[in-house]
Each structure stands twice: as structure tokens, then as C-alpha cells.
Amino acid sequence: QVQVVGSGGGLVQPGGSLRLSCAASGSIFGFNVMGWYRQAPGKQRELVASIDTSGETTSYADSVKGRFTISRDNVKNTVYLQMSDLKVEDTAVYYCSLNYWGSMYWGQGTQVTVSS
Predict the structure, then answer these.
(1) Is the distance from CB of 105 to CB of 98 less than 8 angstroms?
(2) Which of 9, 35, 76, 95 is a plausible cystine mate for 50, CB 3.0–4.6 Å?
(3) Is 104 within 8 Å of 98 (Cβ atoms)?
(4) What distance lies between CA 10 and its chain's CA centroid?
(5) pLDDT by residue (tens digit) across 3-48?
(6) Centroid of chain to Cα 98
């Protein structure tokens, strides 16, 4: 059974940094895409960043380009989202995701709050 667990959220001041982690476990073999989505109150869930198995193909929302960096450690089946220069508008619940053979698996969500 595939499981995805995200962690690392918290409260940070504008301009600060946080790192989110997403660990996948279970029967995962071959190509997959892992990433982070976020959902702010009253808004739809949106893709923040994603990365494929090789780590060579990444995708970012325009709003985070140049500030967020996604990376992965395939030995640990873990993806990291390094968030820098955080803005108030980055406040949301962040959800880790795994797209594997057309099925989406979601983590439980971790709150990121950017506030002075």
C-alpha cells in the first residue's frame, strides 16, 4: 500500500525560509512524479512544484519561481521543497502528492503561515 507523509510546515515571518519534506513508502517501482500542492482559504488547490523520478524535470507555479526549489532523494523516496523569501500570500495548507501509474496519493497536509 502506497503512503505519502508530508512534514515541515510552521509559522515564519515574511522573507523567511522553510523546508517541507514528503516521504513516500510502499510498493513504488519505476517512474513517478512527486510534488506539492497548496490550498489557501477560499481558493482552489494549486500545484506549487513537481519533480519526476530522474529529478531532471521540474515544474513550478509562476508565483514561486525563483523562490522555491524542489528536489528529491530516491534512496529515501523523499522530496523536499525549499521555500525562501516567503510572502504572506504563500500562506496555505501544503499537500504532498505522488502521481504513480495514473493514481494520485496525498499526504495529510501541513500548514504554512507567513505573518509578521
Answers:
(1) yes
(2) 35
(3) yes
(4) 14
(5) 999 999 999 999 999 999 999 998 888 889 999 999 999 999 999 9
(6) 10
Q: How far apart are CA 94 and CA 90, in angstroms?
A: 10
Give yes or no for a contact between 107 and 22, defined as CB atoms under 8 angstroms apart.
Answer: yes
Residue 77: phi and psi, rounded to 5, are: 50, 45
- Where helices occur in the chain by DSSP H, the ranges are none
What burial letters (b/e) apply to 14-27, b meaning 16+ CB within 10 Å?
eeeebebbbbbeee
Tell me the three cell numbers of residue 99: 502521481
**88 φ, ψ to 5°?**
-55, -35
Kindly calculate the radius of gyration of the chain based on its CA atoms and give it in whole angstroms: 13
